[in-house]
Amino acid sequence: MTSELNRRELDVRGLEPPEPLQRALEALASLQPGEQLHMLIHREPFPLYAKLREYGFTHRTTKLADDCYEILIWHA
Known about the structure:
Strand order of the largest sheet: 1-2-4-3
CATH architecture: 2-Layer Sandwich
CATH topology: Translation Initiation Factor IF3
Number of strands: 4
Number of helices: 2
Low-confidence stretches: none
CATH class: Alpha Beta
Mean pLDDT: 94
Order of helices and strands: EHEHEE
CATH superfamily: TusA-like domain
Number of domains: 1
Largest sheet: 4 strands, mixed
Strand content: 25-35%
């Protein structure tokens, strides 16, 4: 897995659609192989998952205790 040094943070909790998706796609556009995007969001981003598949990314989603979601994204 990727080290903390190769991980970008994106906190979009509280933003209304489509801004979380737009910000995620902007961050992914410059994500290099070996880097990972760590995203926090207040709802499960189903539209993002389709885009990740389309653009060749892999992800792992975890529902946190505060009902937010942590999503780790990297190049497949």
